[in-house]
Predict the structure.
Amino acid sequence: SIHSTMFANVRFDPLEGFDVPAGLGPLLFFLTLLTYLVVLLGNGVVMWVIVMDQSLHRPMYVMVCHLTVCDLIGGTALLPRIMLHLLTGERRISYGAAITQAVFVHTYAAAFQTILALMAYDRYIAVCKPLRYHSIMTSARLHLSCALAWFIAILAIFILFMLHLNEPLCGRTVQHIYCSNRTILALACGPTPVNNLYGHTGVFLIVFFSYAKILSVTTKQSRSESSIRSKAVQTCASHLVVYLVFEIATLILITLYRFPSVSTNIKKLLGILYILAPTTINPLVYGLVSKDLRASIIKLLSKKNHHRN
């Protein structure tokens, strides 16, 4: 067996199994580059607007800003490596680089979930305890909560990878579009049951509890208090869409891995969409659903064009 500390080169086949004619390499590189630019531009604009507009320095938008950081991490962990392969044909990757990519991919997923859980709790306080909201979600508590969300995510990933740091590896080919905990563990000489116990249960329970309480509060209101229902829908819709897109992508990917008969090409394609779907859709969701954010984007872009003229 070959131990990870001696495993200098893992053979990395990001497009293995895909029927990609040699002449389409430049086109696929261009499309991948275009997708990466969409991820950078979409999330960059949302982050820039939230930072620049003082009126958006509120808990919900501060958390959205943290989500854009997650999206940038996810897109950057995946797309540059694929572009390198398409441009140069390079298929080899060192063990250190493979672990680094896997760490960032999982950090994106873990931090995304912890921040979504924090946003669900924030919406719960805003809708169910509106009179106490500002006393509970102070600026200090907001930033502490965001820091805690990142700490929990990073700690979880650290523990996850420490569990297999010294795992002996016998395989040399990563059978996926990118390196992750699962694909690296697939190279292990023996079974790794402890490392596979990694799920979304905690985050799901927090989100489910928060929105169950929100639904309960809004449905108990009289018709004369319908504005509360409207407020709940306006403040929760974008968060729910983002959460559902991420969880549906995750659920489909996890389910497919339970069925070895499923085509490897399909698994790889969905592996890409698992990261790209949320990172490209999220800025559109917040930009279209959130009236305040949409108005701020238009205002700042208009002001910038006015200064140029």
About this structure: The CA atoms of residues 14 and 82 lie 7 Å apart. Strands lie at 2-3, 9-12, 92-94, 168-169, 173-174. Residues 95-128 form the longest helix (34 residues). The chain is about 70% helix and 5% strand.
